[in-house]
């Protein structure tokens, strides 16, 4: 028998009425009920290459968030000394030199360490981008995606890592819903009400 994976949240939908609380018996009953439904949506299992590529992308995203956070912290601390610098990281790096010299001892040291930390993050991001570009060049599916206007190595490799060959989707509309590009509906009778964009479609 082949094991299949489905969303953890689905078990709450199929939990028997009157069953309160969480225990193994209630979860098992909900899972049995869920897998017998023809409308049940299963989660495709990713291979090791997909997981490794996604690991690369998540690490990169974490570094980007950390870089933004560090620059914001740097600008916030400098503003306490009356130094206001532009939001652009490039301009901030150009203009921060003379400002650091005017700061008192520990403040100058802390700002210098934060600036050095951003440099380290930038170096790591360059390495990760290089690895992502190489993965995209070596994969046939990514190369096909790269031919589309507006799709770069990062998008192509991330999409292939997430959906693989795309055989788990019946058509492009399902891919759009999975990406979260379809509005939710709250329609009845002749009135059509479209809500916010959701992954549920």
Provide structural commentary.
The protein has eight helices and four strands. A hairpin with an 8-residue loop joins β3 and β4 (194-198). It has 201 residues and is mainly alpha-helical. It has helices at 10-13, 24-35, 48-79, 89-101, 105-138, 140-146, 153-163, 172-179, and strands at residues 5-6, 42-43, 182-185, 194-198. The protein is 60% helix and 6% strand. It has two domains: 1-45, no CATH class; 48-163. The mean pLDDT is 84. The strands form two sheets. It has a two-stranded antiparallel sheet with strand order 1-2. This is ISPsy16, transposase.
What number of structural domains do the residues give?
Answer: 2
**Binned strand content:** 5-15%
> Which whole number gives the mean pLDDT?
84
Indicate the low-confidence ranges by residue numbers: none
Work out the radius of gyration.
24 Å
Q: Termini separation (Å)?
A: 31 Å
Number of helices: 8
Structural class: mainly alpha
